[in-house]
Amino acid sequence: MRSEPPDGPDALREKIIGLGETSLHKSYYPELQSRLAELERFRALLDQTYDAIFLIRAETGKLADVNAAVRAYLGYSKKELLATPFADLLSPQQKAGFVELIRKKSDLPSECRQTCTASLISRAGTEIPMEITVRSVTFGGEQYVVAIARDITDRIRTERELKIKESALESSTNGILIADLTGAVMYANRSFALMFGYGEEGAITGRNLEAFFTDPTVGEKITGRLLDNHAIVEEMIGLRNNGSPFHIQVSGSVVQNDAGQPLCIMLIVMDITWRIYTDQMKQETYAQLGRNIEQFAILGDHIRNPLQVIVGYAEMLDDPVAGKILEQSRRIDEIITELDRGWVESASVRQFLRKHGDVAEPSEPGVLRISIPKKGDL
Question: Given Cys at both, which of 28, 134, 166, 325 links 314, Cβ 3.0 to 4.6 Å?
Answer without folding.
Answer: 325
